[in-house]
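Review form for a predicted model. The reviewer records the input and the model, then writes brief findings.
Reviewer: anonymous (R2)
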Amino acid sequence: MNKKIVTFLLLTIILLASCSTVFAANTATEKVQSSKTTFEVVDKSICEINLNDMGKFTKQLTSYDKEKRELIITLNVTNTAKPEQTSKPVELMLVLDNSASMTKTYQNKKKMQYVTETANKFIDSLFGHFSNIKIGVVSFSSKDNIIDGAIDNSVLGTTGDATLLKQLSTSKDEVKSAVTSYATTTGPYTNIEAGLSLAQANFSQNTDTEKYIILLSDGVPNLSLNIDVADTITYSGVNAANTKKKLQAIDNSGIHLYNVLMGYYEVDVENPQAPLVQGSTSQHMTYGDLAKEVFGTTSSPTAGKFYYINYENLDTTINNDIYNSITYTKDATLKNIVIKDYIPQNIIDNFKFEYVAEPNIGTAKPLDTTDNSITWNIPQLKEGAVATVSYKLKLKETVDKNIINVILPTNTKVDIDFESPDGKGSVSSDVSPKVKLTMDNTTAKDPIPQTGNYTTWFGIIILIAIAVFAYIKVHHMNK
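Model under review:
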């Protein structure tokens, strides 16, 4: 009987020990001390992402300390775009109205004075901005049709209604002198087509130049080229159609056209010399109606750009709006850049994460454990600017034995959303530096004892003691 009891107890002890050992092995993650491992970088690949040819993102290993078992990874975003501005040679013709109406005054100042002051300031600015510019000056009105005291309209409507005051020149002083002199002679009528034609004919044939025409007039045309005598000095109709056609032809030729019509205060005033409004027996077309017939509207111009203004607004229109348009610099700012760097779970489990410093541009959020990512927001990045942020990955004191001898990427992927002048963009890459842990051959390779193992052996010892005690007790009773 006692042998059976002892045998039963011994089998029970063996079974409990086996189950406890398996349980402990299955419930505890084996850890090793990181100090007993060799830490090395096995891949220094640089993650590079192009942002619509306007920017560049890089993620790379910038520091590595084998003894401290840590590394620093740096993220950079560079706006590689350069401000775009006119680099070609510039040819510009000023086409100025010197018809009789321009000799009148507006708010105690001659209309021509508004033009000369504004144009000369414009010339100074252009020569100051461009190193390769030529400017010419054309005036237009009409010939005098009073010959020997009699009216002779046959002399009207020719290229002689315009005068080349200064051919394209690199001399600022000579161009300004031509502008000042334009007011010394006038003609009775307005042949805009003649002025535009003469200006266009005096551009060079060089196709590698940016060409501009700036037209300044106080009214719509009542003359045009190659018309019948019956059509002279008439508003609307054939003169409007001819001038409109010329504007469109210039625009289609590639010349940048800016049309400035002064006298907006009369936009709703009837022109007594204009035709009657269709369907009316007494109402004449207004100056605004006539302007629209030739130039279109400011929002929907016939050709180029159209400004309908008052004289006091001439300086701002020419020296601000048009000047900025001609010297236009394209905004190459990158905006609303959102960078998400996803970090693998085994890196998060075995490394301590911390930012080395705050980003110099934008804000970086703490590590988000819901998707194992960090997010870096950059509201805007100007041309040539570089945004940077760095973070450190340092091995914990104990690490999972399962990562030993395994190549570990330091990130899963990088996703970037951004906005550029060309639109929104989204790019991604999974390239990253990689590290590896190996056991140090100079140290013991046994894993650190885990809590589950201690419990198992403690239980076994107790069971053995109980079994021995029971055996002695049974043996004693049998005696």
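Findings: The radius of gyration is 44 Å.
Further findings: The longest helix spans residues 451-478.
Recommendation: see findings above.
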